[in-house]
């Protein structure tokens, strides 16, 4: 049975903003982890590092959620929920948000850095509204389409002439960020549908992370032969950093799923995308340096465009 916070606007807004702040921090720290020795020792390692990092991130998050679920004495009930129709939709959302979206996100960070990645991927709420229009027949007003067009235009501007000395492969990273948009936008829509009846946000997140981690395990061990690298990272101090980062990311997910359940997926994602700006702020605090005018300008346009779509859908 759903609790009263479902219609608590203040709770939902606070949760959505908190998810954005924490995901911005997660993004920056993830960028640091990807530069550590365990991930850059040779060419082969560099090639599969983002996938292994994504696997270990969601595996660690599944570990934290399992601990919470066991502490609440709700773990076995949560596992049973996977067999329900709602649980299967949450598991499907996990595939788009984890193995599809998160792996692409890691590749984007490793190739174009956390700043560009956060700015480009922040368009996913507008994409979610678009998918809602295609699959759910939710119509956009002129204001909504203006917001969607503004976000897409900002992505095109960012994709043209990167001019960043720290970028390794902009074309590949840019495509990876676009795949992130696809995965995360579909995750929010599908997950909201799955949570509308009998699954609470904490239960949905546990299902999401466990499902994602298991699929990653198959991908890493069977398809990319990353078992040895994963084991190596598990035995180094890098894993401690991943655990801490995953804890931050897990808290972000908890706030995000709570916001989705409380105020709906479009409003929740509209607040969550503020991680784009927070990632820039955290990058400045940690690394210092000067901001790119184009990055800041496009980040603002993306957020304005996504919020326009979000407000349109929420009305």
From TrEMBL:
Residues 20-158, 172-310 form the EamA domain. Pfam families: EamA. Keywords: Membrane, Transmembrane, Transmembrane helix. The chain crosses the membrane at residues 21-40, 46-68, 89-109, 115-136, 145-163, 169-193, 214-233, 239-257, 269-287, 293-310. InterPro entries: EamA_dom, EmrE-like. Belongs to the EamA transporter family. This is DMT family transporter.
């Amino acid at each position: 049975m759903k609790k009263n916070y479902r219609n608590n606007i203040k709770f939902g807004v606070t949760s959505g903003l908190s998810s954005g702040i924490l995901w911005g921090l997660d993004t920056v720290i993830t960028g640091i982890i990807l530069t550590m020795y365990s991930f850059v020792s040779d060419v082969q390692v560099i090639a599969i590092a983002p996938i292994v990092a994504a696997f270990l991130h969601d595996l660690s998050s599944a570990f934290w959620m399992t601990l919470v679920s066991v502490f609440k004495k709700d773990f076995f009930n949560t596992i049973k929920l996977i067999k329900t129709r709602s649980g299967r939709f949450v598991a499907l959302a996990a595939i788009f948000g984890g193995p599809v979206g998160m792996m692409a996100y890691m590749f984007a960070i490793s190739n174009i850095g956390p700043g560009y990645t956060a700015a480009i991927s922040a368009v996913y709420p507008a994409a979610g509204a678009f998918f809602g229009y295609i699959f759910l027949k939710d119509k956009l007003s002129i204001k909504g389409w203006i917001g969607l067009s503004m976000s897409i235009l900002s992505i095109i501007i960012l994709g043209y002439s990167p001019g960043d000395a720290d970028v390794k492969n902009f074309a590949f990273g840019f495509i990876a960020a676009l795949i992130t948009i696809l995965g995360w936008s579909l995750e929010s829509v599908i997950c909201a549908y799955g949570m509308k009846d009998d699954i609470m946000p904490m239960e949905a997140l546990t299902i999401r992370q466990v499902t994602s981690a298991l699929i990653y395990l198959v991908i890493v061990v069977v398809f990319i032969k990353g078992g040895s690298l994963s084991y190596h990272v598990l035995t180094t101090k890098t894993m401690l950093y991943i655990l801490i980062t995953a804890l931050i990311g897990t808290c972000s997910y908890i706030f995000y799923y709570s916001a989705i359940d409380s105020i709906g997926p479009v409003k929740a994602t509209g607040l969550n995308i503020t991680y784009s700006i927070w990632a820039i702020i955290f990058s400045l605090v940690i690394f210092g340096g000067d901001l790119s005018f184009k990055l800041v300008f496009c980040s603002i346009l993306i957020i304005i465009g996504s919020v326009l779509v979000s407000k349109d859908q929420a009305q």
